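Here is the promised in-class demo. Please do not try to memorize the tokens; focus on the logic of going from shape to residues.
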């Protein structure tokens, strides 16, 4: 009986080790929106096995109508989430101690558009006009710009649809360069029919998509998080040089999850999202949060009365990439 017991004990020990290994190396990531090319680097890293090569078992889950990425993080359903910088700072001021471990977006893609036929050609022309703004959030920066110029406007809450603008129900519409701006073009509006107002041109080039975790996750799993960021960066690099494959991958995923898809639009989105990741003249490395961008975001939120105070840059940004210093 002893050999039998010895074998059984060995099997049990092996199973326990395997279970522990799987638990340590399993990571769940939630982007802050439905599947689209905005998150292509993560899908590519998973599909190409970059996470697996790093010793990670990564599951990607998306928000739903009732549960957003922040709630996934709070409940422990997700270990890592993506968020806009201003959204993360707002959540932190409300008591959720988010930590930024990597900043992939380095620029703002938010812009406003008007029809040239409307005669709205400068920011001063916005006075007294109706501006469409998303009900789903991200309104802090556009409203800060309008407030700086002391303009009186009527904010009209809208969903992600461009229909109200197309029907003439809005004078101006807030759009993302990689998303709704191109949707207008695909809806029959030529680009030269639009006046464009990039918020980055008015001193509001606040970066957007970053990766966030809870402090306890960072403390316990910093090595795994570093591997996740490195593998994701590899995914973005692969996406940039294999765009046709990447678009097919994204569109197939969208269709699997019953999200409306368009290859031309996703191709546009991928190009612009990659453009937004370019650090340009910033004296930083890729995936680093520039302290001046952090301070600008804090300033905007304080001015809007959304936050009263903010944690320090050193507490907020804790990079897990070994070659990045704060």
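The designed amino acids, position by position:
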């Amino acid at each position: 009986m002893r050999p039998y017991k010895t074998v059984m004990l060995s099997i049990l020990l092996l199973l326990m080790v395997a279970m522990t290994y799987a638990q340590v190396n399993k990571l769940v990531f939630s982007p802050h929106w439905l599947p689209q090319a905005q998150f292509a680097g993560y899908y590519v890293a998973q599909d190409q096995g970059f996470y697996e090569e790093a010793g990670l078992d990564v599951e990607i889950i998306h928000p739903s109508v009732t549960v957003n990425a922040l709630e996934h993080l709070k409940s422990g359903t997700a270990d890592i989430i993506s968020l806009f910088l201003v959204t993360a700072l707002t959540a932190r001021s409300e008591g959720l101690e988010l930590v930024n471990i990597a900043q992939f977006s380095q620029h703002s893609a938010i812009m406003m558009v008007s029809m040239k036929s409307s005669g709205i050609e400068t920011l001063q022309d916005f006075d007294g006009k109706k501006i469409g703004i998303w009900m789903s959030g991200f309104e802090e920066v556009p409203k800060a710009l309008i407030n700086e110029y002391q303009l009186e406007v009527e904010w009209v809450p809208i969903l992600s649809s461009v229909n109200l603008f197309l029907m003439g129900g809005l004078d101006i519409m807030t759009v993302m360069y990689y998303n709704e701006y191109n949707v207008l073009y695909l809806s029959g509006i030529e680009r030269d029919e639009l006046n464009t107002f990039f918020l980055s041109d008015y001193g509001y080039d606040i970066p957007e998509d970053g990766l966030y975790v809870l402090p306890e996750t960072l403390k316990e799993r910093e090595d795994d998080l570093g591997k996740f960021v490195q593998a994701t960066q590899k995914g973005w690099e692969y996406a940039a040089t294999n765009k046709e494959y990447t678009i097919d991958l994204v569109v197939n995923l969208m269709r699997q999850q019953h999200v409306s898809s368009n290859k031309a639009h996703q191709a546009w989105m991928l190009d612009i999202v990659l453009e937004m990741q370019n650090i340009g003249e910033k004296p930083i490395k890729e995936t680093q949060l520039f302290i001046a961008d952090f301070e600008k975001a804090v300033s905007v939120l304080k001015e809007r009365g959304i936050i009263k105070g903010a944690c320090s840059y050193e507490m907020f940004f804790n990079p897990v990439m070994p070659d990045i210093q704060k």
